[in-house]
Amino acid sequence: MPRRSISQLRQDCRPRPLNCRIRGQVDELNKKESANGKPFWELKLRDSSDALTLRAWTDTAAFDSCEETDRGACVEIEGEFLINGAFGLDGRRWRMRALKADEAQELFEGTPETAAAIQRDFACLCEIAGGIADPRLKALCDIFLAEHGERFRRAAAARFNHHAHRGGLLRHTAQMMRAASALCEVYPHLNRDLLLTGVLFHDSGKLWEMCPPELGFEMPREIRGELLGHITIGIELINSLWRKLPVEEWKSLAPSSEDVRLHLLHLVAAHHGELQYGSPIEPKTPEAALLHFVDNIDARLEMFAAAYEKQPEIAPGIHERVRALNTSPVRPLPRPQTPS
């Protein structure tokens, strides 16, 4: 029986039900009762690509397996999967077994495609950051990637709306770096070094707000993230790394190191764009405004892509409303085929 990641499964079983195996970590496991008092287990499985919720009823082998399974366990589920109009991706006649230690290690390393994508995105960050000309900003990026690169590789960009999975922050940031770099060619008056450094650091606080452990997909809540939020943590991180820089060596550089630090902090502080969305200040420079728009573009395009995968169709080509997008996504017009 073939094996799929959860995101692959969403695509492959859309035309028709598919018998296959999936592996993941039990993110949530709750015993509930239906409206008529019949008990069932609700299990949320997460892998490096996506999450899936399944239900196990009392008259199934899966119910007994859930009784013997703990939250955080690494498991393989085998069964028939389909797109159910009421529940989205769903499973029937499924059964579950615990993974062996070597299988669990392989699970956290991701599929070959996932691992390759992580490598490409991290290499992209390093390459673009390596091209920063301002020695202060380049040194700051180098320290950050050297000290926190491993954590960056596994952090998520969000809990729900976009890039809400292990490695999601890296994907989101790499896409933004590519977009911001391209836009600097269109608007050459921008401070490219400052903008790209701001992109790298804009969500750096999420390394402590929503980062899975080394062997896990769950995003545990930490007291630092709950009390401060990622913008405040990101500002604190920049200041702590800045103190490690030999700024005395750059006294003669213009603009001054203090001005560079303050403008970078502003980019992080203002990247949500408006006070009502959590920024303590609104964008006051072209670089801060562009960072906010690039952040929003990548997040929204990811939400559209996820909607086409996950949201059921309520009419041909029209998907169920996505609250974060404030619309019912419509299938995009395909690009024209190039004549052969």
Radius of gyration: 22 Å
Q: Into which percent range does the helicity of residues fall? A: 40-55%
User: Which blocks of ≥5 consecutive residues have pLDDT under 50?
Assistant: none
Oligomeric form: single chain
How does this structure look, described?
- This protein is of the alpha+beta class.
- The protein has helices at 6-12, 61-67, 101-109, 112-130, 135-154, 168-186, 192-201, 206-209, 223-242, 257-270, 286-310; strands at residues 3-4, 18-33, 39-46, 51-57, 74-84, 88-98, 313-315, 318-319.
- Strands 1, 2, 3, 4, 5 and 6 form a six-stranded mixed β-sheet that branches. A two-stranded antiparallel sheet has the order 7-8.
- Strand 1, helix 1 (6-12) and strand 2 (18-33) form a beta-alpha-beta unit.
- The mean pLDDT is 92.
Could you give a short description of this structure?
This protein is of the alpha+beta class and 340 residues long. The protein has helices at residues 6-12, 61-67, 101-109, 112-130, 135-154, 168-186, 192-201, 206-209, 223-242, 257-270, 286-310, and strands at residues 3-4, 18-33, 39-46, 51-57, 74-84, 88-98, 313-315, 318-319.
Please describe the topology of this protein.
Layout lengths: L2 E2 L1 H7 L5 E16 L5 E8 L4 E7 L3 H7 L6 E11 L3 E11 L2 H9 L2 H19 L4 H20 L13 H19 L5 H10 L4 H4 L13 H20 L14 H14 L15 H25 L2 E3 L2 E2 L21
Keywords:
340 residues; alpha+beta; OB fold (Dihydrolipoamide Acetyltransferase, E2P); 2 domains; six-stranded mixed beta sheet; two-stranded antiparallel ribbon; 11 helices; globular
